[in-house]
Amino acid sequence: MSRHRGAIREGAAGTGTRWGRTRGICLARCLGAGVLLLLSAAGSPERQQYETVFEGRPGKRVVTGYTEAGWTVQEEMLGRDESEEYLVRVVRDRGGNYFWASREMLPMERMETEGFVTWSAGAYGYVKTYREPVLEMVREAGVFEPGHEYMEHVINVLYSVNYWGTRTDH
Fold first, then answer.
1. Per DSSP, what are the bridge partners of residue 63?
2. pTM for this model (two decimals)
3. Is the pLDDT confidence value at 94 over 90?
């Protein structure tokens, strides 16, 4: 019995027994995996393949939906924590494809008019921003509340949510 314990101790010390070699292989694999994990967290190709093209912080949320009582509309101003939680982000990959990064990387299509840039995710919703000349005109005319530089429209089965807020990607 003492011989067996000695072999385990010697193997654990790496003296060439089967246990020592297995432990060494396991240690090398674990260290290798750890190094790869650190490198990927610091600057993985996946993280670097997307460029943020729009980012906004909402200040207001309006939920419209159908309940047992019928159609309802709930409007609320968002505090700082909620605003951070509902931050909206649209990204572009190296191939020029757009994605709704803040909504499970849904594919989006970019559309431009004289007054707006809209990224649409089809039946799931869209993000619409004012183009600068129109934004300046709207500000000067005072036709909307300050801080409404974009709108995010999220569609669900029985309700939709609209967020209005300010751009943070300038």
1. 74, 161
2. 0.67
3. yes
